[in-house]
């Protein structure tokens, strides 16, 4: 295999080729896959992963991790439902959820950047704390939504496409612009590439990392609100294991675990590959036990791809 072919297979083009081949094979072999109902269902099923991946991309690109995203999603959904029920105002509930998610992300960022505690340990601790707060606030039970208008956030459609899918697409576009066209995006990649060199170049590395985690919390809150609306209740145990799926999608999409490399187009393809894998397993009635194995294999494959990409680029 020539160096050129290797670069193509390990780059964005290779990922796109893999996606197109997988889509073609699945379309030809799996009954009902290409129906409008199934495609829309597939897109809806990846909304939570896709939205959270928008900012996990920035975390990974800056050499950090956030394992608390699933807990923040559940907690924000709980806050949105409980505040809406208590005040009778859905906008207040949504605002409270967005503030709660942003606050958790901000605390993560401060602890990591200012107190110099490893991101893996910090967010692992936050994952437990925030999940515990959600369980305490609800006494471990689902909290029903009093106002049916809350459901319209997830159940409404625009041009026949569910609103959450449009929100995910808009966030993809926004964060693609942020990554490629703004100082914040360039600084994120610079921090991930070489934090010390970025600091010497005048980049405020600490506040850059804090901003990334605060943004992560805000986006998780958006995902939590939409999830609560879709499942018609605030669930303290919602989004369990979400962090692994999101990291898998990002790494599969070319975001480097070593930092400094990320593309939104790659992340989108990574999210869709995960969604197709899960959708096909459901269409083929594969038992949930085996689905865990497949998810684990996809994560392992994503990390292997990242290693091969890094070697090809001379990063390791």
Low-confidence stretches: none
Please describe the biggest sheet, giving its number of strands, its sense, and whether it closes into a barrel.
Answer: 2 strands, antiparallel
**Could you give the distance between the termini?**
21 Å
How many domains is the backbone divided into? 1
Number of strands: 4
Secondary-structure arrangement, i.e. CATH architecture: Orthogonal Bundle
Radius of gyration, taken over Cα atoms and rounded to an integer in Å: 20 Å
Under CATH at level 1, the class stands as: Mainly Alpha
> What global shape is seen?
globular
Please give the order of strands in the largest beta sheet: 1-4
Helix and strand run: HHHHHHHEHEEHHHHEHHH
Q: Structural class from helices and strands?
A: mainly alpha
CATH topology: ABC transporter involved in vitamin B12 uptake, BtuC
The fraction of residues assigned to DSSP E strands is under 5%
Count of helical stretches: 15
Mean pLDDT: 88
Helix content: over 70%
What descriptive keywords fit this protein?
ABC transporter involved in vitamin B12 uptake, BtuC, 15 helices, globular, two-stranded antiparallel ribbon, single chain
Protein described:
The protein has 316 residues and is mostly helical. It has one domain (3-312): ABC transporter involved in vitamin B12 uptake, BtuC. Helix content is 75%, strand content 3%. It is built from 15 helices and four strands. The strands form two sheets. A two-stranded antiparallel sheet has the order 1-4. β2 (157-158) and β3 (161-162) form a beta hairpin. α1 packs across α2.
């Amino acid at each position: 295999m020539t160096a050129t072919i290797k670069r193509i297979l390990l780059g964005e083009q290779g990922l796109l080729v893999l996606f197109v081949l997988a889509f073609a094979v699945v379309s030809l072999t799996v009954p009902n896959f290409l129906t409008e109902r199934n495609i829309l269902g597939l897109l809806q099923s990846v909304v939570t992963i896709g939205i959270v991946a928008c900012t996990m991309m920035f975390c990974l690109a800056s050499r950090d991790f956030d394992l608390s995203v699933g807990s923040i999603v559940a907690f924000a959904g709980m806050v949105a439902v409980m505040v809406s029920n208590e005040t009778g105002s859905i906008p207040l509930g949504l605002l409270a959820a967005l503030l709660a998610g942003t606050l958790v992300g901000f605390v993560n960022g401060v602890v990591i950047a200012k107190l110099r505690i490893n991101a893996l340990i910090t967010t692992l601790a936050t994952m437990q704390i925030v999940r515990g707060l959600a369980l305490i606030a609800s006494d471990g039970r689902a909290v029903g939504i009093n106002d049916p208008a809350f459901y319209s956030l997830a159940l409404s459609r625009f041009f026949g496409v569910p609103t959450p899918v449009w929100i995910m697409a808009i966030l993809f576009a926004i964060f693609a612009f942020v990554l490629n066209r703004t100082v914040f995006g360039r600084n994120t990649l610079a921090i991930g590439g070489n934090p010390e060199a970025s600091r010497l170049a005048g980049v405020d590395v600490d506040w850059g990392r804090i901003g990334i985690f605060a943004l992560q919390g805000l986006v998780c809150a958006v995902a939590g609100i939409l999830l609560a609306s879709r499942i018609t209740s605030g669930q303290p145990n919602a989004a369990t294991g979400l962090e692994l799926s999101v990291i898998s999608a990002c790494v599969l999409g070319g975001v480097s675990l070593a930092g400094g490399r990320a593309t939104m187009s790659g992340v989108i393809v990574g999210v869709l590959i995960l969604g197709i894998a899960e959708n096909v397993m459901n269409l083929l009635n594969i038992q949930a036990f085996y689905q865990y194995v497949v998810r684990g294999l996809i994560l392992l494959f994503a990390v292997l791809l990242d290693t091969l990409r890094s070697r090809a680029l001379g990063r390791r």
